[in-house]
Amino acid sequence: MKFRTAILSSCAAALTLTSYAVRAEEGDTDAADDIVVVGALTDVAIDREEIEVLQANDLADLFRNVPSVSVGGGVGLAQKIYVRGLEDSLLNVTIDGAPQRGTLFHHIGRVTIEPEILETVDVQAGPGEATAGFGAVGGAIRFRTRNAVDMLQDGRDIGGIAKAGWFSNDGYKLSGTVYGRIAGDIGILASYVHVNRDPYKDGDGVRQLATGAEQNLGFVKVGGELGGGHRITASYEQRRESGRFGQRPNWPVLAGDRLFEAKGKRQTAILNYGFEGDSGVGVEATGYWTRTNFSQDRFDRWGLYGAEIETYGFDVRAKLAIANHDITVGAEHRRDRVTSEYLADPAMWQPWAWDPNIGRFTEKGSLMGVYVQDHWRVADPLLISFGARYDAYDLDQTTYRTGTQSDGLSFNVGAEFEIVPGLSLNAGFAEAFRGKEIGDAFTLEKRPGRLALSPTLRPERVDNLEGGVKYDLGGFTASAVYYEMTIRNVILDQLGRDASQPAQDAVYYENVGKFKSKGVELRAGYRTGPFSIDGYYNHYDSRLNGNRIEGYEHIALGNSMGDNWAVTAGYQPSDHFNFRASLTRFEDLNDIEVLFRESQLGFIDGTRFIDKPGYTTVDLFGSWRPLGSDRLELQAAVYNLFDKRYIAHASVADYGQLGLEDYAIVSGLPEPGRNVRLTASVRF
């Protein structure tokens, strides 16, 4: 192991010393590749204009019109992202190149972000190229923050934006951003955002208890172009969320149920550097530190509980443009640490702890990876991409003095061929590798004498094959993509006990079989003058060992979404007025077999079947600049216009339909009913 680590560290050092320049996208270095072939037809970029039109306040708003992405869980810290049905724990999620790793509690989301500070969001569905990062089993999501100099109006060296928003269902949002030029193209930006939400009403007018929260975010970013091809930025973000939630924040709370104080906090510090020379040779580098905390006061059982995930590391890559090749060579290093502990008086929590002499549980992980990716322009109509990465991840279950090591090699190859102007074919194959990483903080405890990891545990191996066609000419765009993805040696926790085991037992990680997902994604759009219309259709089929997956059954793996489609029409006669209407439909998803583990352990006499009813939502968006400039902008939106009550397919299904008393409480939160949002922004 020491020999392997030494080799990888040497590679990283060599890359750092021999690299010279960078191609930065949108002027910022964030360790994101600017050319993509493998999976290019299904990748999606959300720009700042789209974020503004949507009046995005959370993850569900942000990804509302992205075909491959679904978000469930209600609002705030309970939301989980799914890409092609795979949970965000299987995605490589980055903010300006800084990975957001680990899980604090399986009943809350892993990713938190404030859309107000974002410039763009890139979504890669499915394993892609070597530059996508380690562990991108389900794909990658790259958040990029705003830059001060880019926000300045022509001829000005300082500026600011003040916003105030009101939500009928139910709350408000205030934000302020100031930015200015320090010298040349170097600037500084500072933002503060406050959101206060009361519990919302669903489409039936029923108040969903414990869905309110208070959110606060502070963000500072400084840097820019230094001259001579050099660029450097540094940023710090702190996001807090607090409220009174149920014991499982992503499940409904019934009248009379106890509520528990819970707090979440994320801090991220990032340093980006790049240099772009005239020779076509270069480097880009990202260093980062992230710490995420969650605490919940379970006064009814074990008292105050706390969890923390800390991640720090770097990604450095060299780029070389030579002849018809664009070559990227890079190295990635990361250290992860997750802890959980009982913070209450020992007399309270000892009856519930696996070992009262411990009280604090820790896991550590270390990643070293190297990669190479080449984009070869063989001829004007043909672009070929091929690459590979080698990753080694060491898991140290520090508390119990055990762990596991895993390493693997992943390849990808793809091609894009333009048949005639506007019409192109795309095909790609990509592998991904992921060993056992740091675990869910809430499940780190284990009873003495029980293994936390199967002795035969093997890393997950992923194959992703997709191909399709795209047309883009004369205002009309269309694409059709077919994909198949297979995950071998799926790692899941086996929570539960048989009759011979104590009343509470620990999580046991083991390989549970093969996951296979296949689907078709169709998109089309047309723009002429001020009018536009876009639409998509998705067909998903995701199964583990031949059975559909479900969010309660397969936490940390995925959820079944079913077929879905959407149509969006827009009218923008000028830069001062914009109107959009969107209709989204999720079809019925019936006969999902559930309760496999419960049946295996003898809790019930066999598996059961549940349904996910379909639903249709209509959303309206509009913006107006009454002064004929961006000095004043008024925005209005109506989410869920017809006040539909529904549980998103990306949430836990309603197990109450089974008629089993022990599972009556298992259900996802109904989504908010009709919500009118009004926002005014003033630029000065």
Question: Which secondary structure elements does this structure contain, and how are they paired or packed?
Answer:
Layout: H1 2-18, E1 44-46, H2 48-54, H3 59-62, E2 69-72, E3 80-83, E4 86-87, E5 91-95, E6 98-99, E7 118-125, E8 139-145, H4 148-151, E9 158-167, E10 171-183, E11 185-197, E12 213-227, E13 230-245, E14 260-276, E15 281-298, E16 303-322, E17 325-342, H5 346-349, E18 360-379, E19 382-397, E20 402-420, E21 423-434, E22 460-473, E23 476-488, E24 491-493, E25 509-511, E26 515-528, E27 531-544, E28 547-548, E29 564-574, E30 577-586, E31 589-594, H6 596-600, E32 608-612, E33 615-624, E34 632-639, E35 675-683
Parallel strand pairs: 5-8
Antiparallel strand pairs: 1-7, 2-3, 3-4, 5-6, 7-8, 9-10, 9-35, 10-11, 11-12, 12-13, 13-14, 14-15, 15-16, 16-17, 17-18, 18-19, 19-20, 20-21, 21-22, 22-23, 23-26, 24-25, 26-27, 27-28, 27-29, 29-30, 30-33, 31-32, 33-34, 34-35
